[in-house]
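To assess whether the prediction recovers the assembly geometry, we first specified each molecular entity separately, as shown.
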Amino acid sequence: MECRTAAHEAGAIATWFDDELIVRQLLDNDFAFYSPPGPNPIPAEELATTQIMQSTLRSPPTVQEIQAQWMNQQPESVSDSGSVLVSPSRVSLRERGINRIDSNKYTVKLKWCENGMADDGYKWRKYGQKSIKNSPYPRSYYKCTNPRCSAKKQVERSRDEEDIIIITYEGLHLHFAYPFFPAIPDGGGDNPPTPKRPRTTSPGTESGERFREEPRPGTESASSVLTYGNGGDSDGLFFMNAAPQGLLEDLVPFVVRNPAPLLSSSYAGDGVSNNNSLCSNSSSSCSSHRSSSVTSSPSCFSWSPESLSFL
DNA sequence: CGAGTTTGACCTGCGC
DNA sequence: GCGCAGGTCAAACTCG
Ligand SMILES: [Zn+2]
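The predicted structure of the complete assembly is given in tokenized form:
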């Protein structure tokens, strides 16, 4: 509703390019504090492998990490259709589980994990849940808690594969991920970074609750699956390097649109923000109910081979 | 008490 | 026009 910003509409109508402009404007105006990405001390390559691996255990990979992965692994090219083709293992994102539904909508399939709380760095507030016609599982609706952000996401469990969660992202984030803001007064856009993990909620909710029907013991398993650990909000330093684009999208979109080094063209693509959410966190944790609130996202979110695998 | 979740009601689009 | 299904609202409730 009101949240829906011009960016949102523009995206729907035209292309995300418009959004980009808007976002940029916002950035210029509102995010003065934004500091340009600093050079990454760690070689991208290591970052990719090392950090991501580590993050798997403790915290969700950051955009930076993912970015690095992509940069290293794939010099890919983008097809006009919006899907990205990767080289080495060149598989289109579509094949990897990322599908572009609309100019500003993407779906991501994630493997569900049980405990971790994967946080995509953004806070989400659940505003609805609906049972879907041919699915035994309900779909949850989330909005970014930032009042100026129109990003939304829908989380539902795949009826075919119970351990797969399908997340549909819609809209761009017009702000940085929380962790990224040190102590910004506020104007920043989002709320100040929360040092503690207030409630990371969503995790529970999304999947937890809805899916909680049966907390699946760590199904995550898959070896090549990237699972986000939780790190709470903290890790989300998404886009530290990603310059302005950082705020816009999280990983996927990022990847989608900038398969190439995002440093340059940044998001000219379409945008979408994605976060990930999902997973329940086991009931135990999240489910506790609101475990949080805002959540970030699900507990652990893992990119399965089918979805996105950086490794 | 504030922030977030839950959940039924309401709204809207679409097919018949 | 009607009914269904999906999406959103908002009051009530929970938790820290
Ligand atoms: Zn947002």
